[in-house]
C-alpha cells in the first residue's frame, strides 16, 4: 500500500504550481487541498508540524509577516 500524497496548494503561487506540475509529470496524482479556500484546523496544523519535526516555518518576505 502506498501513502497518499497531499499538497496544500495555492494556484496563484508559482512554486506551488511548479510542485504540482512536478508531481504530475512523475505520475503522481496528489490530493490537492486549496488551503486558502479550506484552511486547516488547529489539529491538522499540529499534525503537520509534528511531521515536520516542530520546525517553525514562516516566510519572512511576506507582507503579512512584516506587519507582525
TrEMBL record:
Belongs to the ArsC family. This is Arsenate reductase (Arsenical pump modifier).
Amino acid at each position: 500500500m502506498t501513502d497518499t500524497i497531499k499538497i496544500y496548494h495555492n494556484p496563484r503561487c508559482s512554486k506551488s504550481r511548479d510542485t504540482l506540475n512536478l508531481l504530475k509529470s512523475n505520475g503522481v496524482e496528489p490530493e490537492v487541498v486549496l488551503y486558502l479556500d479550506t484552511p486547516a484546523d488547529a489539529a491538522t496544523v499540529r499534525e503537520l508540524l509534528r511531521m515536520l519535526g516542530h520546525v517553525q516555518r514562516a516566510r519572512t518576505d511576506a507582507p503579512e509577516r512584516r506587519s507582525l
